[in-house]
Amino acid sequence: MHYKSVFGLSADRVRSMVPSLLRCCCLLLTLFNLPAQASSVPLSDAQLAWLDEHRQWRVGVVMISPYAEYDQRQRRLSGFNVQFMERLAASLGVELQWHRFVDEASLENAMRADEIDLAPGLRQTREGLRIWRYSDPFLRVPRLIIGDVNGPRAIDLERLDNNDVIALEGPGQVANYMRSNYPSQPVLEVPNQFEALRQLLEARVRFAVVDEPLYGRLSQRAEYASLDVVGDLGNPQLLRIGSRRDSPVMSAVIDQALRSFPAHELGRLQEQWLKSRSIDQSRRISYWRSLSLLLALLLIAAVAILVWQRGQQGLLEARLKSARRDIELREAAEEAQRLTQFCLDHSTVGILWLNWDSHVRYANQAAEELLGYAAHALLEQPLQALDPALGMDGWLQLWRDARNGIDDHQVHERDWQRADGSRFPAAVTLSFLRFGSKEYLVVFLADITERRRASAALQESEVRLKAMAGNVPGLVFRLERQDAGAPVSIAYISEASQRLVGYSAELLLQPGRGIRSLVHPEDEPGYWSSQQQALDSMSDWYWQGRILTRSGEIRWADIRASVRGQLAGRQVWDGIVWDITDNKRIELELDASRAQLRKLAAHVETVREEEKAHIAREVHDELGQMLTVLKLEISMCEISFAALDPALAARLQGMKRLIAQLFQQVRDVATALRPPILDAGIASAIDWQARRFEERTGIACLVQVPECPPQLSSAKAVGLFRILQEALTNVMRHANAQTVSLCLEQRGDVLCLSISDDGQGFVVLPGRQGVSFGLVGMQERVQMLGGTLLLESQPGEGTSIHISVPLDEQAEPAMLISTLES
């Protein structure tokens, strides 16, 4: 958690005041004789029945001070984990049988041998997920940065020199955290934390990283008097309770008991076992120094206010000028918007926006004139009234094809109906559009009556036009050969060659010249291949490529020739060379426009995820603060008036329970909008999502992620996480699986994510991997990320989804922004 500076206090000073405030609250509760024991844990009937049958729990504990130690004088176990579990067992009414172990390896062996039921004080690891069911964290142990008492205070790891070496225990989570967040900071990995402090005492390193409880014990020794806390690493150690994987009921009971565990009781145990007086004393001295500094600053601020008031008039005038400029810019933007709407309304092409129910939501003036409707009369008209041949089934298929991009920007010729009942041929182009949270099908409409009439006339005169090749613009030619094995020769080239390529027909008819001498060198293989195929099969010839004019200009040409048989086995190809340079340029520009639209869709998705993250932070921070204040107010009412009226005390207790439930709902909403674990990296997010899925469904998840995953941009990390959520949702709803495997690995410059289950599977249709909207959504997200998705499934053999996404390039966001601005 980041603390902002308050009236000049540093972040370390504000952080040091938080434990003091908590201790004051606990002291007030003790003075007013509030009950030290928590109320009974709320459990379901099934959980209570299971608890009645399992009243004795076998608890394994690793003997590490101050978490667990054996008191020789009293001949009993003591320590934070021991007292915490005894307090938890008392609230559940169970008996504990303690089993002591020297390290975590022997503890895990005992769990595999079915010698224990649970163990407190564990850290969640990927290997541990195979043998433990972890609870929510019940203890957050800070990792402190220790330095010389006369050295710098409140250090910033990002501003340290390369000579400032930090000693820490590794390899492990702390070493991984330093490498991923501070890659340029030199570190020295040692076997344990005692060795890290020894390296610091011998001046071999500048700083050392140790846990707060360990340093609290060691700071009371004289040999460590020259050391002091100079910062917090920001990566605390989260301790959990691990239980048997084959007993989900025990895990649920433990989670419920942890949520009902009194906060003041947990604080008392931390003060007793895990805090250090020397650390608190130094923080208390720092607090009074900060308070004195605050009073001095307030005195200086009182003097500065007089000076500040004099500058307000000039500041207000500057703001007024800025506001006027903003108003002028806003008016200019509104004028541009009105001009855009005017151009759209007066376009020569009819434009219709259709909703998912096939009703018209918008029609421009050209569409109203083309269809013979009055102004605004087309609104809410169904598409079937304009295209009677299109039924509801056809509309739904059209919507799905356009949504999947199958018919996107393809021209369809259909007969449409005007308002007076007359029909006309129309060229219809469809485009799917997402505007905000809504989806529309945009129809571009053009009357092609004249084009159809011209097409019919063209077909009628096609035979005559072949004989009039000399009058056709373009380079008309004829290829001839005497029989199937004879070489081909050019019999005729029209005089239009001078206008098209700058060469006369006589020059092109010379031996060794011909059309092939005009072809661009890079396109010659395709030219020869297409010509040879037409000659061998005695079929029509078609080729499209680049040619060079006499001036060296590169132009695009389209060659089409039809074959005709003659007497005595003679073959003739009559054809024409068209100049399609302008059309080709338009085609290339259209491809670039489609690429820009895809980038725009990716940008819209990124903005949507950022808005979710903003809303999650607002919900968590604002509502959390107000609920905390409300809970404190109810506690003060309970302290003041609960003893006077038992009914009021019961009401106040009910209100506190409702506030606790509301706290949980706020956290759930914030997590659903933007899981905070995404900030820790895609690998941690996959582990977290797998654990939540396993707890919610009971389906075992096997997770395999790299130790140091590659860095991803926020958009790609969020996209992969959303794809994983959708895939796990499909498994929960449809697969009826027992196990899910998740694998994240890097293959060269590509990051691969595989999701496999052993469920019932289904038949994948060839050429259509997306058989549901969930799979279609995953395909769209993968395409926006520039990756690929492969779906494999067979009935009874489970389903596998393989996703490949290219790793980030630094220039990609800048390119996207420049594209949008242009």
From TrEMBL:
Cofactor needs: [4Fe-4S] cluster
Superkingdom of source: Bacteria
Keywords for this protein: 4Fe-4S, Coiled coil, Cytoplasm, Iron, Iron-sulfur, Kinase, Membrane, Metal-binding, Signal, Transferase, Transmembrane, Transmembrane helix, Two-component regulatory system
CDD domains with a match to the protein in the record: HATPase_UhpB-NarQ-NarX-like (cd16917), PAS (cd00130)
Enzyme Commission number(s) of this protein: 2.7.13.3
One MF term in the entry's GO annotations: phosphorelay sensor kinase activity
One cellular component (GO) term of this entry: cytoplasm
SMART domains cross-referenced by the UniProt entry: HATPase_c, PAC, PAS, PBPb
Signal peptide, first to last residue: 1-38
Protein task: Member of the two-component regulatory system NreB/NreC involved in the control of dissimilatory nitrate/nitrite reduction in response to oxygen. NreB functions as a direct oxygen sensor histidine kinase which is autophosphorylated, in the absence of oxygen, probably at the conserved histidine residue, and transfers its phosphate group probably to a conserved aspartate residue of NreC. NreB/NreC activates the expression of the nitrate (narGHJI) and nitrite (nir) reductase operons, as well as the putative nitrate transporter gene narT.
PANTHER family from the UniProt entry: NITRATE/NITRITE SENSOR PROTEIN NARX-RELATED (PTHR24421), OXYGEN SENSOR HISTIDINE KINASE NREB (PTHR24421:SF59)
Name used for this protein in its record: Oxygen sensor histidine kinase NreB
Taxonomic source organism: Stutzerimonas xanthomarina DSM 18231
Lineage of origin: Bacteria, Pseudomonadati, Pseudomonadota, Gammaproteobacteria, Pseudomonadales
